[in-house]
Amino acid sequence: MAQEVINNQKERHEFSFNHVFDRETRQEDIFNKVAHPVMNAALDGYNGTIFAYGQTGSGKTFTLTGGPEKYEDRGIMPRCLSLLYSQFKKRTDYTYQVHVSYLEIYNDSGYDLLDPALETQAKSLEDLPKVSLMEDDEGNIHLRNLSAHPAATEEDALNLLFLGETNRATSETPMNLASSRSHCIFTIFITATQVGSDVTRKSKVHLVDLAGSERVYKTRAQGDLLNESKYINLSLHFLEMCIVALQERKGNKKHFIPYRNSMMTSVLRDSLGGNCKTSMIATINPNKDHTDESMSTCRFAQRVACISNAVKVNEEVDPQRIIKRLKKEVADLREELALLRGGDEAEAELTEETFKHLRSKVDDFLSDPSPESELNVGPHMGKLKYCIGYLKTVARQG
């Protein structure tokens, strides 16, 4: 008689997500659902973070950076840049400046993937400057030796992204022949100023590709790869500790969050429970051999979904713009006062050379497309009358 075996292990697990993508989902659909809202918010002055989490080979890096074979396979990162610069052209009432940085965290040490002193592709991490953490008196984290590069055009930004990708450390593992053995954070800094305003909006967007989350024994790694896997698992463990602590906080702002345990959690401090709109992509392998890892990824994603961030627009008054505007106002008032009083040159006789110069100034004023352009002829009533008359003549002829 066969012995009955009772299986007390739960066979069905249910998880709730904002959206589930299948294998047939296009890169464009993922971008529109996950990244588009974050980037639109960044244009309005909100910080944003998009990060991918999952085991090696589940599609994190492909989702973020895309594939080289087809244009349609572009990932979230290049699509984010394309969206930004297309929106800049439409939002003509603002001026924008963009800088980018690319940080690699390998074995809990930071490296600058966009080192300006590097003339050729990095052959090893030793070729890249090491990045260190610094904390100011207010508790804000700063990254020493991490360069931020201006990107005036989409082409500039994409070239910097591709440069960072070529310098990124990859190693072969039994699970993936081009496995990412590090965490990488590509950051876009956006400065927006409305035309004629002294207020500046500054936002940043972190695009984060985390290393594989599988357990060490699953990688079958040895030597240096084994050491890498241990560091990866430890940093992801610290990330999970922060997320669990944020769950337990539930409004208690004094509850301790162990951000300082690793470089990655320190850098992503705002992204987790801070001033940031954060989206997470959880990638899983549907193969039954990876069920445990897929379950672990889903549980992690559920914890992240329970975190509440307090977002706000990052606005600040630019003191240099205020000083410039006030100086101009003072100069205008002095000219107006001199005009009312009648300056020394008010009665000076105007020459043909002066008339020619005034006509040139009026022509330049009329051809300048800037809404802030001005026609300044100084505190001289005769010059003002001549310019007004010349303007009327041009208007009649036009």
Characterize the structure shown:
This protein is an alpha+beta fold and 398 residues long. The chain has 2 domains: 27-317, Kinesin (3-Layer(aba) Sandwich); 319-397, no CATH class. 40% of the residues lie in helices and 20% in strands. It has 11 helices and 12 strands. The protein has helices at residues 27-43, 60-65, 76-90, 154-167, 216-219, 223-249, 263-267, 291-305, 319-341, 352-367, 381-397; strands spanning 48-54, 94-106, 109-112, 130-135, 141-144, 149-150, 170-173, 176-180, 183-194, 199-209, 277-283, 315-317. Strands 1, 2, 3, 4, 5, 6, 9, 10, 11 and 12 form a 10-stranded mixed beta sheet that branches. Strands 7-8 form a two-stranded antiparallel sheet. Strand 7 (170-173) and strand 8 (176-180) form a beta hairpin. Helix 1 (27-43) packs across helix 3 (76-90). It is elongated and about 100 Å long. It starts with 26 loop residues before the first helix and ends with a helix. Mean pLDDT is 83; it is low at 170-179 and 219-223.
Task: List the topology elements.
Elements: H1 27-43, E1 48-54, H2 60-65, H3 76-90, E2 94-106, E3 109-112, E4 130-135, E5 141-144, E6 149-150, H4 154-167, E7 170-173, E8 176-180, E9 183-194, E10 199-209, H5 216-219, H6 223-249, H7 263-267, E11 277-283, H8 291-305, E12 315-317, H9 319-341, H10 352-367, H11 381-397
Parallel strand pairs: 1-10, 1-11
Antiparallel strand pairs: 2-3, 2-6, 2-9, 3-4, 4-5, 7-8, 9-10, 10-12
Helix pairs in contact: 1-3, 3-4, 10-11
